[in-house]
Amino acid sequence: MSVAMRRTRGFTLVEMVVVIVITGIVAAAVAVFVRQPVEGYVDSVRRAELTDAADVALRRLARDVRLALPNSLRVMTGGGVHYIEFIMTQSGGRYRDETDGSSAGDFLDFRGDTSFDVLGPVEAAPGDFVVIYNLGVPGADAYAGNNRAQVRSAGGGNLVLTASQVFPFRSPGARFQVVPGGVGAVTYACPQAGAGDLMRHWNYGFNPAQAIPAAGLSARLTGQARCEVEYAANATGRNGLLYVRLTLTSGGESVTLFNQIHVDNAP
User: Fold this and answer.
1) For residues 109 and 198, is the Cβ–Cβ distance under 8 A?
2) Which of 149, 219, 228, 255 is most buried when burial is the number of CB atoms within 10 A of its CB?
3) Three-class SS string for 134-149?
4) What pLDDT does 1 receive?
5) DSSP readout, 207-261?
6) What's this model's pTM, rounded to 2 decimal places?
7) How many angstroms from the chain centroid is the CA of residue 63?
8) Which residues, in sequence order, are bridge partners of residue 250?
């Protein structure tokens, strides 16, 4: 065999096996150093996503609660689930009252009335509800409807009701709130233990006694959620505080956020 032929031959099987073994050893050594940083990055991304989801859910709840009708928020636990219910408002204003110094206009008659003037612009539409001086007690409870009337029309500084309404109490500040007819009462439902869906329910009407579970339309805010809820109705005089501790879990990781939400109970 010539020298030229010996120089052009390939590698042997033994050489190929040796290269594969050495490559495997190098790859295993590199994987040891790379694994932990990669796992740490994945874990940090998961925690960030959980934190963001919990923060968005609590902000949504806080925004809705701050629009709650005074003295309408109530909390109940049943079947291992916390239910936070309240009546949403979209606007409010002042009604023309015979004691406000006005000499003319359509005053609100507390013996029964179908229309009254309002002071300033008011956002209201047919199907919405007007509530005056809600105290959340028998005789002045918007859930029961004795201080709630439906709007037939609104415009020109005047609100017209669908039927004559006898509002039980005057508001000291001649104030009223407008409840959107397409939303009404709202319920947030969150598991007390374990892990389940955090849900928002709305457009199911008004129930004198809190109904659980709530019906109507619903939306899932987060999954794998757990809540601790406490409500102090008169924590600061006429105002309340809603305490919510929300825990979200995913992939063995858990994130807990706590929020204190101010509840305006001054009607």
Assistant:
1) no
2) 149
3) CCCECCECCCCCCCEE
4) 47
5) -SS--SS--SEEEEEEEEEEEEEEEEEEEETTEEEEEEEEEEEETTEEEEEEEEE
6) 0.83
7) 7
8) 253
What long-range pairs does 55-60 form, CB within 8 A, spacing at least 24?
55/257, 56/221, 57/198, 57/221, 57/222, 57/225, 57/246, 58/244, 58/246, 58/257, 58/259, 60/200, 60/221
CA distance 177 to 159: 12
Q: Which two tokens stand for residue 55?
A: 């923060």
CA distance 141 to 251: 45
Distance (Å, whole) CA 210 – CA 119: 34
Task: Tell me how far apart the alpha carbons of residues 130 and 151 are, in angstroms, rounded to a whole number.
Answer: 7
Cα separation of 66 and 74, whole Å?
A: 14
Percent of the chain with pLDDT over 90: 64
Structure tokens of 8? 């052009």
Q: Which two tokens stand for residue 116?
A: 């009254």
Pairwise CA distance, residues 116 & 133, whole Å: 16
Please state, in angstroms and rounded to a whole number, the distance separating the CA atoms of residues 267 and 173.
9
CA distances from 70 to 41, 53, 100, 171, 231 (A): 46, 28, 23, 12, 14
What digits encode the pLDDT tens for the residues 62-112? 999 999 999 999 999 999 999 999 999 999 999 998 877 777 889 999 999
Mean pLDDT confidence for 153-181: 94
List, for residues 217-234, the tens digit of each pLDDT value: 999 999 899 999 999 988
- Give the C-alpha separation, 128 to 219, whole Å: 22
**What three-state secondary structure class fits 83?**
strand
Rg (alpha carbons) of the chain, rounded to whole number: 32
